[in-house]
Amino acid sequence: MKRIGFLSFGHYQPVAGSRTRTAREALLQTVELAVGAEELGIDGAYVRVHHFARQQAAPFPVLAAVAARTSRIEIGTGVIDMRYENPLYMAEEAAQVDLLSGGRLQLGVSRGSPEPALDGPAAFGHVPAEGESGADMARRHTEVFRRAIAGEGVAASDPRRTGRSVALPVLPQSPGLGERVWWGSGTRATARWAGEQGMNLMSSTLLSEDTGVPFDELQAEQIAVFRQAWAAAGHAGEPRVSVSRSVMPLVTDEDRYYFGAERGSTDQVGSLGEPGLARFGKSYVGEPDQLAEDLAKDAAVREADTLLLTVPNALGVDYNLHLLGTIARHVAPALGWSPAGRS
Question: Burial of 195 by CB count in 10 Å (0-12 exposed, 13-18 middle, 19+ buried)?
């Protein structure tokens, strides 16, 4: 395990027990959590993007704020639903955040997940072309976005103003950003496509297919398919792979109060309202030594280079830094990880 990061869904709700009651609090706490995580030696600060929900929505402003308050930690998304995006405007935003951060942006993009809106992308002005599905549109937007951040000309110049006819790229450009785009994949088929396209792979605690094998084994198979497709396509270098896990060490009475009932969690199989079954990975809850042993046996964690820890952000910054600190000191070292900046 080379890197460990946190993944926040940015929940906020004015309900009993919530320490993140407003959107402003959720944003400010995301920044503070990233600052504290960097001090712990954590490698990455990632935000999940949801629309029409009391969660993190537009990621670039908060990522820019994190970039301004930190110097080392990777900042990223897991994932941006590309059905909603104007890919050229997103290319401008992403490049600016990457430049502000000194090249630390890691962009997870994908088709997205089930959501409250019946047709949210259409409300944002994005409708699939004739014969396209929503997934097809997300891939098309991703292709345009990747060409734009690579510096490809996307708009014809006006000869009356420029004195020539050329294809203009979006500006600014941030060199190297194109190598830090990840595809959030929920199946082996989409992982194969991501490998063929030369993107990194981001896989969460949910796979939208089920073959009857344990979640970690199915996800490890997904990773193997991705790497085989990457190699077969002839891409240079080594792709990165991240997996997400819910890891809750029980070391205090507060930990046991919040998460003790989840001890012994198992995989779950169910429907997302679409054809076929989905498999949900279990939560890892227990004493640190047991968690380290269990995670070391996780087939997909062994195959990935980056582990993203989903955090209960509504419990506030102090509690989540306690959680991350416990993992950094007592769980992650057993997986071969050491805090950033230390051997």
Answer: buried
State if pTM tops 0.90.
Answer: yes
CA end-to-end distance (rounded Å), the chain: 13
DSSP state of 225: H
Largest CA distance in the chain: 71
Centre a 10 Å sphere on the Cβ of residue 302 and count the other Cβ atoms it contains. 16
CA distances from 199 to 170, 235, 248 (A): 21, 10, 30
Q: C-alpha angle with apex 40: 36 to 44, nearest 5 degrees?
A: 75
Give 56's DSSP letter. -
The Cβ of residue 293 has, within 10 Å, a number of other Cβ atoms equal to 13
Three-state secondary-structure class, residue 77:
strand
Q: Are 75 and 106 in contact (CB under 8 A)?
A: yes
The amino acid at residue 138 is A
- Estimate the share of the chain in helix, then strand, then coil, as percent rounded to the nearest 5: 45, 20, 40
CA-CA distance, 254 to 184, in Å (whole number)?
33
**Inter-residue contact 266 to 282 (CB < 8 Å):** yes
Residuewise pLDDT in 10s, the chain (343 residues): 799 999 999 999 999 999 999 999 999 999 999 999 999 999 999 999 999 999 999 999 999 999 999 999 999 999 999 999 999 999 999 999 999 999 999 999 999 888 899 999 999 999 999 999 999 999 999 999 999 999 999 999 999 998 889 999 999 999 999 999 999 999 999 999 999 999 999 999 889 898 999 999 999 999 999 999 999 999 999 999 999 999 999 999 999 999 998 887 888 888 777 767 888 899 999 999 999 999 999 999 999 999 999 999 999 999 999 999 999 999 999 999 999 865 4
Tokens at 126, concatenated:
């994005």
